[in-house]
């Protein structure tokens, strides 16, 4: 039930994101071209949700913003899932000192005050370490990279716990006795059996990343204009929230729905 | 128990040392400093002034030398001066920490109170569980600054019941009014975890045979719930609280900015942005320490509450 | 729960909160910055100037009409009244000696008169460069101080500039409180100064108000200074509250917690005009265009931007009047050069660049840039006409303008690629080390008639050899401009100086070292019952004239 509801929500948002060019075709205007005569326009047939502070269509920007926000969420979650699973598996499989070091590292990350560190990382000059500065795609990569630094921890802990119990099972021992290689055991027996908990953690990571992107935007460290993301739409609307509340309400609701969708999916998977 | 405690304390110390160095490097990697910014903002400052002021503040030293000097001072108990505020770091952090802890305490109490109440409700009346779930999910899904702005518009601007932010000038009971909205903003995002964990734990406990026994002895449902089932649900809730405490000390930045309450989150942000390494590092380390100690305390309390864990 | 909140949101714009009628002996002012220090000479920041404006009196100041006037002194020194005299320095250069006489009734909050000793101490501390005062040029030039009598002091300067009568940031410091602390060790004086350790000490303040309470990060409370002998201010208490988020600032104003928002550190213009449209009945909004020059610095070392025709096309392709009227309600003054029309040296007849897309296109053609298949122009070598357009990330108003400019340039076949950086990175590295290739939007803040030497002289181009000093980020070089920049400061005759300024403006308008946009306006929000606040439009805060403020 929850799983279906959550998936339906996310599917709806994803369809909107993918269908953005079609909607643009139907409405017939460019969501990235400012029109100074249309600032904060009310809802109308041409602009179903009205226009933003630069006269651009809010609905279209929400849909294109969904691409960026969902991409940040999914990419962060995937990166965290891959990294986290790899570290968790490694820790469980090798055990001993490596396990201890990796898990202490994870504990240390959990103890870090995440937001201030995110701020430091987001404000650090990526140009110095060779990453390009400022462009939309590199912005997304930068934010995904920063959020992944914190995202892998949850996945790794879950993956390790699950992998430990699987590795102790009889069929793994049997496979080993039959001479199966370690790589094969991990890939064929362990990974499929720990997919459940990892999926839960990944769904939650998507939610966390979408929220974190909006927080970074509030601090002016998010996705740069003219690209739209839900976070920067919300943050751009806040100055004029008293005179044009809808420009802030819509992206806020979009974030709310996306995060709730991910949480529902995670809940559904857990049962 | 003692050995465990000692091991954890050592671990905390090592983490702090690594953390301090990493943060120092990161802050050092950020280009520009307030003196550059001062030049951009004040036409009367010349480039020579900038070089002179930078030397005066020790900003022209290499990064490692500055770290060594700072860390050495810290070990001797000298926290140093904040360059941004020209005051001893301890004098700046103390009031900020108090303010944050007040906010945090309020938020934990409110989130815990409402969350647990909702959890118990969901466990006792399964038909209400979906509604409780919906509230919890919506609460944790809203971006906090968006939620904060909505609360301000509703309660401060439209209804005029509560102040929109800032601190009380008269102190005493009046300062409670100033706490309501920021505490609510923080608590709404956090109550979900309490509701879920307490609902799950109480739900499990209610199936235990000794609960049935308690009911059979003629205890009322409310009494069963509060006296028998709830204490068993306290353990997971305690752990959630410990994790929250850490996240909130540093993470109240948004709430502090929106409600114009000085606190640790804002202080760290300003210090980092202003290249005030002394202040930023001490504050960051303090927050990390509080987080780790809270986790440790929760673990110890858990052991005390749950006899099964004592031997482990 | 959510739908109700949303419904109420819409109502929010219609129903203003009930304004409690505040006791009129207190004025609560909101600003967006907290002063990092209260020491008058250390670090210059707008929030500090604003607070100190209530509590301290500088010697001289530029007033609301942008004329230099006496505030702490009783007569403005001049060559005519004999308080300034040309002389020769010991090493044979032309010099000047200037005498300032303090007002007789100026007193510190503990009752002691402000004396020449206080000025002498301030000069000594400033002269010792390890003290860490900003703006050392004044102290470098003032090589000798002579106390004439308890109220008068003479400084000897090794340079004669038209600004000789201005004492600048050199202001009396209470020597009876501060001298001992400074003499103990100048290097660490900053952190031991009473302005840092006991800011509520009345002896630190000589203005109409004194500081009685400091809440770090949150606010500063001032109370009438009993020893103030000038006209009595209207309010017993002034509370200054820091709210950094402008959304929250407006909320506190609407909730009745703040009486006014200081324009020096207040709401962005578009937020203020929106506020005026909604609740204009409760508040009066004063817009004051100021000496804040918003412009695009372009890098002249980039071949395409080195071409003057391209720079001229860039200006004419932007409909600046439209941007100002739509985004800023017509409240900002268009800039045709770097001199503000309100400055007396402004030349009405300088060349103006109207919005003229046809001429912009013609100039680009002439420069060899022809339209390509995607509408973006290309030169003979096939390079696209692409300009990197940067500004301070997180500044919503600039980011909005930037996107509009991007759209307008596109119409002319110019592609702008937006790349923004946080202020620390932009000012601390990209601009100051000239690491930008295209155009950067930011502002210069200045005092009336300030000579733009650091931004236009070819000696001020930052290079590694010069340790990146200088602010001529564009790399503009023009021999005649250099000569003018050297001649203007030492020309004491107003009319001759005006002619030099006219020439400077003519070169600027023709050569376009930078693309002028407009002069930013401050939006001051006052309650309807408050009268007499007059913003200056330059660095001097309106709070210096608090004794003119009155309840209607």
Automatic annotation (TrEMBL), chain C:
Protein's name in the database: Peptide ABC transporter
One Gene Ontology MF term: peptide transmembrane transporter activity
Keyword vocabulary terms for this entry: Signal, Transport
Chain ranges of the Solute-binding protein family domain: 96-446
Main location: periplasm
Any one of the GO CC terms: ATP-binding cassette (ABC) transporter complex
One family name in Pfam for this protein: SBP_bac_5
Keyword Repeat (UniProt): no
CDD domains: PBP2_thermophilic_Hb8_like (cd08513)
